[in-house]
Amino acid sequence: MTRLTKKNSGVIRQFDIKSLNVRIGYYFLLLISLILVLIAVIPIVWIFLSSFKTLSEFVNEPSFLPHKFSFNDFVNTWKVLKFWKYYVNSFYSVIGSAICAVIFNGLLAYSISKVRPKGSNLIYTLILWSLMLPPTTAIVPLFININKVGLQGTFIPLWLSMGANAFFVILYKQFFDSIPQSLIEAARLDGSSELGIFFRIILPLSTPINAVIVIYAINAAWSDFLLPYLVLNNTGKETVMVRLFQFRTSIATDVDIIRAIVFSIIPPIILFGIFQKYIMEGISKTGIKG
């Protein structure tokens, strides 16, 4: 309460706290926020705790806490399910997707924002309209084209799909608009090509938005299921999410699957913990200027 009375910014300020109605509303919103946090966190905590249980304990004893905490079962599950292999496959998918997300989306946004060829406004309008279309509506023609060009069973379609993301293009375009045009003109006078300007000037100046795009791309590529399942299923290159789905017909027990789920959520949790600042910054940039 002491910190609240010293608050001089935001929706609720120091002089607002003197009102009883404001205080009641503040604590009510705080209570609602705590309930939402519990709703979001409890399933993760339950999965983590359940992964320490034995099969008999999991099936016959519906207790929240396990009898003991032993990491040997995690080691055995990791070895039996050969989970390291799917981690490697997911890392291949994630690294290529992050690189393509930065380069291809950045190039398109740079063209719209700084090069501005004829028809660029129409292209940007179509990109905005594409946000209203569910991505799954294009999955059938996309899969047909992937087969026609012979990319079935490779990571390339996953990389390229992340390099054609309308949301990333809009984020980049909004950021590039804030870069002075005089820098671009000076580089052109020095004889630099448009690609040279992009890679030598624009990208180094765009470190904050690059970090946001990379984080979003990594999270999306790691969590993606449908396209990796269609492209990589039964090829030996399955990602973690695809392999989790395949466990439904394997010899893995329910507890093994829960441990596999724990393995799958560890990287996103670590990513969020390390780059929370950039993720929150990215959320603040999602507004589209008129």
Radius of gyration: 24 Å
The secondary-structure element order is HHHHHHHHHHHHHHHH
Query: Which fold name fills CATH's third level, the topology of the largest domain?
Result: MetI-like fold
Q: By helix and strand content, what is the structural category?
A: mainly alpha
Description:
The chain is mostly helical and 290 residues long. It has 2 domains: 2-50; 75-284, MetI-like fold (Orthogonal Bundle), CATH 1.10.3720. Helices cover 70% and strands 0% of the residues. The chain is built from 16 helices and no strands. It has helices at residues 2-5, 20-50, 55-60, 72-80, 83-115, 120-130, 139-148, 156-162, 166-176, 181-189, 194-205, 207-223, 226-232, 240-246, 254-274, 276-284. Helix 5 packs parallel to helix 8 (156-162), helix 5 crosses helix 11 and helix 6 packs across helix 9 (166-176). The protein is globular, with a radius of gyration of 24 Å.
